[in-house]
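As noted in the main text, all predictions were made from sequence alone. Below is one such record, for Class I poly(R)-hydroxyalkanoic acid synthase.
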Amino acid sequence: MNERVVEGIEQTLELKGYLDGRSMAYTFNLLRENDLFWSFYINNYLKGEMPAAFDLLYWNTDGTNLPAGTHAWYLRHMYLENRLVEPGGIELDGVKIDLRKVSTPSYFISTKEDHIAKWNSTYYGALLPKGPVTFVLGGSGHIAGIVNPPHKNKYGYWTNDALPDNHEAWLENATAQEGSWWPHWQAWMTENGYADSEKMVPVRQPGEGGAQCD
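Prediction:
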């Protein structure tokens, strides 16, 4: 990702005024081209086989278009310039964001085989808040590692109470756990009072926030 690439994408967005959801799907699929692109070309097109029913992949291909301004802003500020890690680097509705001031308990979940949000990068986000942080590394990838219901008893996860400066040091001393990370998250929610129905914040309805994106 560099300035030239972002400028090219911005020029393309200006032509339509939006990002075609199919383009986003192709982009993610090409990050794992052998599994998510060429396998379908070989099996479905060349061999004429019908694709097997796979609920997660069906959901994954149900993309949506994004407004040009939203995608361009996110791509430039969050990816190219990585401003979110800078104190005050992002300003929303007149409020400067500083993750180092976050004092509430935080639960970070990444997955070991994630090809989109690689855990060796996302781990360093867990080092920013000043409040207590729990970092958990799930098995599998971007979708299957997150949508991992306990009754399937498939992918495990890793935990480590310490948060060393290096992600490799974290994994080296982490403890492998069997089963889904969901019960671990539920226990963390209960321990920190997030599962208390009296303290829960009601779900917002569309349009209630009042914030606008230029």
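The chain has eight helices and eight strands. The chain has two domains: 3-84, 96-191. These features were considered when defining construct boundaries for the mutagenesis experiments described in Section 2.9.
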